[in-house]
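# nightly structure sweep
# worker-07 picked up a monomer target from the shared queue
# config: single-sequence mode, recycle default, output format = structure tokens
# input follows
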Amino acid sequence: MTTPTITTLAPLLDRLFDEADAARGATRAAVADLSATDRARMMRSKTDYRDLYGRLKDVPLAVSRETGHLLYMLARSSRAKVIVEFGTSFGISTLHLAAGLRDNGGGRLITSEFEPSKAARARDNLSAGGLIDLVEIREGDALKTLSADLPDTVDLVLLDGAKALYPEILNLVQGHLKPGAIIVADNADDSPGYLARVRGPASGYMSTPFAEDVELSVRIS
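# output follows
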């Protein structure tokens, strides 16, 4: 039996998750001068999020280990061939998704990251994992980088960038989602507008919260 790619990636992923855990102090320090109210406002603002994420440009904003496993499982179970990711950071989620593509026989993952230093780290990590050939990292504002040149059909979407932009990113990819396409939104509670949309009875989606901070949605029409 062929060893799953996610298994061969275990040492790399363990190191990256350990680094993310060790960076929690730096993450807290980067926003220590902001009140909880200010952090919440910046997180939900469609403009001020740039200042917030600029403060965090040197730290990994990683999915949890459990969410990483979920992403790989969804990519595999859906037999995804085309995946779009909003928010690359250091590429931990990207590795899980690309591993799913590899084990599906190949495919294409388009991911967007507006911090050049993070895009460079992600490229290094994807190269170390032997998956860079499946991934196109688009640097810059995702409202621009994901607004054109998407494949006709997208099977799986991960939203894990600026939370305030989740509805706008969904607008960009929605026309490429066929029934059965999956959307995973991390930290979705910080995007109430997005939740209201995908949970609406006439939205064209079925959607449910999953684990602590993930919203799992399926396009049904």
